[in-house]
Amino acid sequence: MKIQLGRHVYGLAAILYGIVFLYWRGSPILWQEFQPFANVPHPGILAWIVGAILLFGGFALEWSKSARAGAVASGVIFLLFALLWIPRIVARPGVYNFYGNFFEQFSQFSGPLVVFAALGAGDSKRSALASRLGYIFFGVCVVSFSLAQIFYLSLTASLVPKWIPPGQMFWAVATTIAFALAAIALLSGRVALLASRLLTAMLLGFLLLVWFPALLAGPHRLTNWTESIETLAIAGVAWIVADFLSQVRPASTAP
User: To the nearest 5 percent, what fractions of the chain are helix, strand and coil?
Assistant: First the structure.
C-alpha cells in the first residue's frame, strides 16, 4: 500500500522543522514548547541532534525505499515532544492549553505511524492494527483541536484576517464546528474520507490565510515559523489519513 502526497507534505514539514532547530539552536524561545529541555546542559547541542534527526526523517520520507525509516525518525521525535507535556498536565490539570499542546505534538506522531504501517511488506494483521491505531489517534487529536478553539475562542478569532467576511468570530465558530464534525466523521467512520480531505483543505487554508501572511510580515519571528510549519505538518497528517482511507476501503465504511 502506498501513502501518496500526504507523506511528501509531512516530509517537507519535517525538513523545515529540522532547519528551524539548526538555525535557531541557541534561542531559548525554541524550547518554550519543550520546557523539560530548557535546563539541560548545552541545549544547542540537543537542538543540533533534534534538527539532524528531523532533517533525516523528512528527506527519508520523500523516497519510498527509505520512507519507513523516515517515519520512525520523525515519529519518535514528536512522540517524545508529546510525552514531555504530560508532567505539566498532571501538575496543572485545569489548564487546557497543556492538553492542546500534547495533542498537537501527538497528531504529528500519528501520521508517521500510519506511514510506517501502511508501507510495510504485505498486509499483516500487525500492520493493519498499527495503521488503525494511527488513524484513531489522529481522530482523537482532532477532537482536541475543536476543544482548544472552544476554550480559546477569542484568541482563535483574533487570528482570522479581518478582511475576510462576514467576520472574525464567525470563522472562529465555523472552524471549531468543522473540527468537531471532522472528528465525529473520522472516529465513526462515516464519510471519513470526505472529512479527512476537507480537513486537509481547511488546515492548508489556515496556512495560506493566517500563517503565511504572518511569516511574510515577520520572517525573523521564530513563532511565525514554528506555527506555520506545525500547521503544514498537521495538514500533512490529515492528507496521509485521506490517502490511507482512499486505498483501504470506501469512505462510507467504518474504520
Answer: 80, 0, 20
